[in-house]
Amino acid sequence: MTADLSQIVKAYDVRGVVPDQWDERLAELFGAAFVQVTGADAIVVGHDMRPSSPGLSDAFARGATRLGADVTLIGLCSTDQLYFASGSLGLPGAMFTASHNPAQYNGIKMCRAGAAPVGQDTGLSDIRALAERWLEEGAPEAAATPGTVTERDTLADYAAHLKALVDLTAIRPLKVVVDAGNGMGGHTVPTVLDGLPLDVVPMYFELDGTFPNHEANPLDPKNIVDLQARVRAEEADLGLAFDGDADRCFVVDERGEPVSPSAITALVAARELAKHPGGTVIHNLITSWSVPEVVREHGGTPVRTRVGHSFIKEEMAKSGAVFGGEHSAHYYFKDFWNADTGMLAALHVLAALGGQPGPLSELTAAYDRYTGSGEINSTVADQAARTAAIKAAYEHRDGVTLDELDGLTVTTADWWFNLRASNTEPLLRLNVEARDEATMTAVRDEVLALVRA
Fold first, then answer.
1. Are 359 and 398 in the same domain?
2. Does the pLDDT value for residue 420 go beyond 70?
3. Could you list the residue ranges that cross the membrane (predicted)?
4. Which domain CATH number covers 41?
5. Which burial class, exposed, middle or buried, applies to 170 when counting CB atoms under 10 A from its CB (0-12, 13-18, 19+)?
6. Would you say residue 33 has pLDDT above 70?
7. In this structure, are 266 and 248 located in the same domain?
8. Under 8 Å CB-to-CB from 369, ≥6 apart: which residues?
9. Which residues are identified as catalytic?
């Protein structure tokens, strides 16, 4: 195959269709390039349940050992379990997963020791350049002494680490429905939740990278319909849904209603600030107004950042933040090497709910104060031109402030909206929030009319 690496090496990871866009030969070159760029003499490698994952991860390990690095294979794991291994073992790591993408995709999420991210500006472009060179010139010369490969099971240690960070000893018994979406949550949830006073109702725990029941992307409302119905049928206290690599967690309350990731961010922020008084909390610019309000109310300092995990992790490290949250249900913890773990966020929700007598809907109402549109995508011919037209329509209005930290954000006393261009598709993404439903609807409809004009 002749690979076009510009199509598969993204801003934060490698991702593409197997074997059309990449295969085990290229994975082996990526492994060698990863070792050369990081300068590592030992690395850790894990993979998800996709049919192509074991072969790709083994090939990556071959490339790494060819250049003399020792490889610890941890086998089937969630992405945050790989981050745990990287952090606890002090090794750079590679996770083979395409997260919530369809079955024919696969990818690599890479990190330096301590789960520090590898993105375009922190090594990924160098890894791509080496792999491209070796595709043309042939594989690099092997080290005089090749590295070794050992296997290690980190699941129990990962579960113990998470449970040491959240006190669940005194919670009341809870009934929780968990939809693993045939992804890695089916592997991690039983061990993490074992021994807790929970009646767990499992859904789609069978590891199956063809995703026979629904896409493992709970951000799309159609993929949590089964969970919502099951929570109501079981009269459960809550529902949890994980994406394919189980690094994101979505929450459904006892009525089967989705709890916004902004409300979860605010709830967890309040709990983390109780552990780390006066700490900083990161939130991206399309989380709810509720988040910075709750952070200030609990004595913390909110810091607003661009959308995307590399920006969040960079800001976490720079500011020493105790916690960070995104609208996409990525949750980042100082106590977890600044990496994202949906499982730890889920444990916080269980602890908060189980530590008081009321239902989840009442508990989260305090953190869900405004009305949001959710993310609305519009296909446009010229993203920059449409954004400029929106800016021109609002910049001279009274009481309006604009900023361009990430796309265009327009803010008034009663509402705000953000319009961002997709990096990969001809789309503009709109998020609107207001103090009431009628205002949100009016602003949403006005902006969409301008975007789609």
1. no
2. yes
3. none
4. 3.40.120.10
5. exposed
6. yes
7. no
8. 288, 289, 290, 293
9. 99
